[in-house]
């Protein structure tokens, strides 16, 4: 059950594909990125993040572990660092109207659903529309189908997730916070898609 | 406590440096900035912009200043914290809760929370029972209630962060001892909302607005910004709260709100004869207490709720009536104290004598 039960996959610091073109702007070497997590309650938003933060565990890196705010810095191959500041949001319906307070100014929004729940996929689509309407125009959007380890209970096909994401210009991935599958890949791909500070 | 004491040390250090003759130019800028504020009508957005710009200007002035030559980044930071606190404290009365609109919203929220307090339970926000922890909740409430203890935006923000840290610890502990998955914001926000309602922090809206406008912009980021946003959203949730916001029957919610309103209206602060006679007629009037003729064996468990709310109603009315009567009795000597101190002393003395005499008799 727990998202903290298995071992971290220890694949820290293997981000690739970052170019050198960002080294000119003063803080281009150290990006600070606000990432907001949206999705129905119970889809495992916070488990994904805990898995990411603990999986990247490195005694020298400064990690903030709260229950709902976490930050984690990852080093890229080109010696730049990306500090993800991860803002969790309450997924219950009654708090839906508060979401804009959280995603305002976010560089990344990760919309999570549970592959074993069609309802959570419908809710995810609602968030995507919300973000397209009210999020900042250059926001990086990722669609995540979590609980991919529960194949036997799958209600949302990979194809459906992928098609929806492509149609909306989002990055798509299925993860399992339980087995740590694709957790690091998710954040690596996000880092690749970040608009880098202008070089001139 | 450590943070608070080191904070005041920092602040005195800042004041000390400002007393140094070498900083006369900085002092001049600060003074003229403060004075310039009185030239303009208060306008939160403009005032905030001017203050934030001023801090940026001063930041570079301090970095280039001989008094801070060779200073560490931390020392410069401390000077800026000191500056923020100093200037804001001077301008506080002008800029805090400065519009009638803000004052109105503060009142509305305080009143609404007062009503909600009388019936809202953690279950109504679906807070799981393993997070019901009275001592943690009380601690978190106390932190939030300290928000008016300081005028400095940083210290006000610290109250919010401390409150959120207590909740965080509660969540983390629960996840460890109960061996549960941390539900993150799904658990955090409902608890914060409940704590906010229990605490009813003074001038919630104005305090949040004040922090947003006057906390140094480069410091209201990251974790601080996150927890600040959570309280902002708790406030917004409470402000718009209706039956749909809670796990509660719509009709029941409305009844509870009405009952709470009635009992609040029945708690007059002003003791005046008209009000008291109004209460008396109410008591004498048609019986709104359906259990007066009931026998114990006729009652069912379902009646408990109604009985309890009637009981509360009666006690509230009785208490306010008694308070009003007491005030009427005490009022006269008090007014004399205000008008004429010597006279009142005499009055009190003669009263004492009167008591002694009557007890002697």
Automatic annotation (TrEMBL), chain A:
The keyword DNA-binding does not apply. CDD domains: Rab5_related. One of its GO terms (cellular component) is early endosome. One of its GO terms (molecular function) is GTP binding. Residues 1-21 are annotated as: Disordered. InterPro entries: P-loop_NTPase (IPR027417), Small_GTP-bd (IPR005225), Small_GTPase (IPR001806). It holds the Pfam family Ras. GO terms for biological process: early endosome to late endosome transport. Keywords: Nucleotide-binding. Gene3D superfamilies: P-loop containing nucleotide triphosphate hydrolases. SUPFAM superfamilies: P-loop containing nucleoside triphosphate hydrolases. NCBIfam families: small_GTP. This is Uncharacterized protein.
Automatic annotation (TrEMBL), chain B:
SMART domains: VPS9 (SM00167). GO terms for molecular function: guanyl-nucleotide exchange factor activity; small GTPase binding. Residues 103-247 form the VPS9 domain. GO terms for biological process: vesicle-mediated transport. Residues 341-361 are annotated as: Disordered. One of its GO terms (cellular component) is endocytic vesicle. Pfam families: DUF5601, VPS9. Gene3D superfamilies: 1.10.246.120, VPS9 domain (1.20.1050.80). Transmembrane segments: none annotated. This is VPS9 domain-containing protein. It comes from Kalanchoe fedtschenkoi (Lavender scallops).
């Amino acid at each position: 059950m727990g998202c903290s039960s298995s071992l971290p996959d220890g694949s820290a610091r293997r981000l690739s594909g970052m170019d050198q073109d960002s080294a000119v702007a003063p803080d281009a070497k150290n990006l600070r990125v606000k990432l907001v997590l949206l999705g129905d309650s119970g889809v495992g938003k916070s488990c994904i993040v805990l898995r990411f933060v603990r999986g990247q565990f490195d005694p020298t890196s400064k990690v903030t572990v709260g229950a709902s705010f976490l930050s984690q810095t990852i080093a890229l191959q080109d010696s730049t660092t990306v500090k993800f500041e991860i803002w969790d949001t309450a997924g219950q319906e009654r708090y839906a109207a508060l979401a804009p307070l959280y995603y305002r100014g976010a560089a990344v929004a990760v919309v999570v659903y549970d592959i074993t729940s069609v309802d959570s996929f419908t809710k995810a689509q609602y968030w995507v529309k919300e973000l397209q309407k009210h999020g900042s125009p250059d926001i990086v959007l990722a669609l995540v189908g979590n609980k991919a380890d529960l194949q036997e209970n799958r209600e949302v096909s990979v194809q459906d997730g992928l098609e929806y994401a492509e149609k909306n210009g989002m990055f798509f991935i299925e993860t399992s916070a339980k087995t740590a599958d694709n957790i690091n890949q998710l954040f690596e791909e996000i880092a690749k898609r970040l608009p880098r500070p202008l070089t001139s | 406590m450590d943070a608070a004491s080191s904070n005041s040390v920092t602040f005195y250090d800042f004041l000390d440096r400002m007393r140094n003759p070498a900083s006369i130019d900085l002092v001049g800028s600060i003074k003229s900035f403060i004075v310039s504020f009185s030239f303009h009508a208060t306008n939160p957005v403009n005032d905030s912009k001017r203050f934030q710009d001023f801090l940026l200007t001063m930041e570079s002035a301090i970095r280039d200043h001989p008094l801070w030559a060779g200073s560490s980044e931390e020392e410069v930071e401390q000077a800026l914290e000191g500056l923020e606190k100093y200037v804001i404290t001077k301008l506080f009365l002008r800029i805090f809760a400065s519009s009638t609109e803000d004052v109105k919203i503060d009142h509305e929220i305080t009143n609404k929370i007062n009503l909600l307090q009388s019936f809202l339970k953690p279950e109504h926000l679906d807070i799981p029972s393993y997070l019901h922890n009275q001592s943690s909740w009380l601690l978190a409430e106390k932190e939030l209630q300290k928000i008016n203890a300081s005028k400095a935006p940083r210290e006000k923000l610290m109250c919010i962060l401390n409150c959120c840290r207590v909740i965080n610890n509660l969540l983390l502990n629960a996840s460890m001892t109960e061996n549960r998955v941390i539900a993150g914001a799904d658990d955090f926000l409902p608890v914060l909302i409940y704590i906010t309602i229990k605490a009813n922090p003074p001038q919630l809206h104005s305090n949040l607005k004040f922090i947003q406008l006057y906390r140094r912009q480069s410091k209201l980021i990251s974790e601080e910004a996150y927890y600040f946003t959570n309280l902002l959203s708790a406030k917004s949730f409470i402000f718009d709260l209706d039956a749909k916001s809670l796990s509660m029957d719509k009709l029941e919610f409305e009844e509870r709100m009405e009952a709470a309103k009635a009992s609040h209206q029945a708690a007059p602060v002003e003791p005046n004869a008209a009000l008291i006679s109004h209460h008396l007629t109410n008591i004498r009037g048609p019986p709104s207490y359906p259990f007066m003729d009931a026998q114990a064996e006729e009652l069912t468990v379902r009646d408990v709720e109604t009985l309890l709310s009637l009981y509360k109603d009666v006690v509230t009315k009785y208490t306010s009536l008694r308070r009003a009567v007491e005030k009427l009795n005490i009022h006269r000597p008090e007014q004399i104290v205000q008008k004429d101190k010597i006279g009142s002393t005499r009055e009190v003395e003669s009263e004492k004598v009167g008591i002694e005499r009557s007890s002697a008799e």
